[in-house]
């Protein structure tokens, strides 16, 4: 019963089905990656959870209770959106105070420390911020607000490399001190591979993968070598991609490797990075849809 | 005389000096990375080149002629901005046609192929696009417009991993067919490390590095091992960062390595990624400024 549970959710905009019968449960105290191609419905899903739009079918529950018109539930879920929802002439300090009022509070001292660290003047108006600093400001709220489920849509959009490092480090630190659920939607998959413990991948309106990252990594391989030997080795396995380098063939495999099969001397096995896995898995479903 | 030359450029906003006496020359037919922290003045520099704002001091010339109020020069320089400069109710096809009119033309067939490839409907209005698709649309113009100097401000902002790969590949292809200068400002440094041939790094209002990427990489090392041995080895070298892992010490070195110095068996040398080099170089100047 515990957790943020999405059941059989479907959404259409005009006649286009954006989400088709999505079911996924976000457990307490876990850091999730919500991954998917541009325009695949990640932002729609976050808006549904935040009650900003409503689904034609299905439901969303928090610890067993529907979130629709449920203020108690909504106070426990904070959604940081990619869109700019704040009035441009509001000062950042005012937005912080308003947010603290609606949710169960906000760690003001920590927010000020973070603002200092990221070089953000909280006396500014929201409309004065660049893309990068808008992300930083929204990240500061997400890291300091009192909520059990915190959804971050593109938290590092426009951030430079140093600021991205700082954000990831703060996320890990605050999670260690007070474990709660973070659901991060991002396009920089390689950078969060060591932070998220669970990945949910959306493609073509469906959940195509919902798994522990550790588990995923033990099944993600690149097998290289001469065509004939490599092809024999991967026979019957779930091959999601193929690349060629001169005479050498590489297969991207997402599967448990067969223990009984002998690896020839000319064939090499290596780990596939999470981003490659994502690229091939989501390409596959897109092609299937079009074909 | 050839090239886009920035000489002793200084800009102040209110009393704050954003760019301080910047000098740098962008050569013909070269792919540049213009790198810097958030808010360091990259966008200001691009706006100056595009004649959208003006400098208090210094000048910008193209092949020896000032770009100020020089329509002939400005037609040869295309600046793709991070800000959204197009009216929201204009159709994408109309924007393409207008751009073709102002510059020396635009490869319409290639633009349509790219739109198809990226899944972008050109009959849409600009205001309907998401952050990612705004970037894609602006990238399509940048790749197809007839100009000798093309400046891209955050070309992959909001793009998913597959789209980023596609964009980099198209950039390399179109450059190979028709070499011209691309100046890319981006925060995803590691991803462009193999694409750019020359890097210009801005920090604290100044150009702190202006060098061929190949040259930079031959001077960028991480030296690891026991503290005593490592410290002895890097003595007198330009150490830009230090990290500790238990008893092991790592120094990030940006320097030519001393040929005469013997590397002890316990000390390891490896290449430093471009992003690490960037992080340490720009941290250093920021700290120097604050100190």
From TrEMBL, chains A, B:
Keyword Magnesium: no
Molecular function GO terms recorded: ATP binding; ATP hydrolysis activity
SUPFAM superfamilies associated with the record: P-loop containing nucleoside triphosphate hydrolases
InterPro entries named among the record's database cross-references: AAA+_ATPase, ABC_transporter-like_ATP-bd, P-loop_NTPase
UniProt KW keywords: ATP-binding, Nucleotide-binding
The ABC transporter domain, residue ranges: 4-229
Superkingdom as given in the UniProt entry: Bacteria
Name of the protein described by the UniProt record: ABC transporter, ATP-binding protein
Organism for this UniProt entry: Ligilactobacillus saerimneri 30a
